[in-house]
Write a structure and sequence with these properties.
Number of helices: 0
Strand content: over 45%
Helix content: under 10%
Structural class: mainly beta
Order of helices and strands: EEEEEEEEE
Distance between the termini: 55 Å
Largest sheet: 6 strands, mixed
């Protein structure tokens, strides 16, 4: 079996990751959840980073540094992820991070 090698011109596509949230981090329903993402175009032009909660688009940012302030987040366990879009029509999705949103008295 031959080892796999990438040519210098191989396309790796865009990538994105959430940089400031940790699994099971707790927030209150009355707070703002700041979601920050690092997005790389890897040779492509980034047009937008979108932010999702439980699969629903909650906001987007077109300019670096990519971030969104989610006011009054949904109560319960929420899966957050980001998606980067490029001018060339490609996209990538970050890993999901589960956070917990509680009533203010339980934080």
């Amino acid at each position: 079996t031959q080892p796999l090698t990438a040519s210098p011109n191989a396309f790796f596509g865009p990538s994105v990751r959430i940089t400031n949230l940790t699994a099971n981090q707790a927030f209150a329903t009355t707070s703002s959840v700041v979601i920050q993402a690092e997005a790389l175009g890897n040779g492509e032009n980034i047009t937008e980073v979108q932010f999702f909660a439980n699969g629903t688009l909650i906001g987007s940012d077109q300019y670096f540094p990519y971030a969104f302030w989610w006011d009054f987040p949904t109560l319960g366990n929420v899966e957050i992820f980001a998606k980067v879009l490029t001018a060339q029509g490609n996209s990538a999705t970050s890993a999901k991070i589960s956070i917990q949103v509680n009533e203010p008295s339980s934080i």
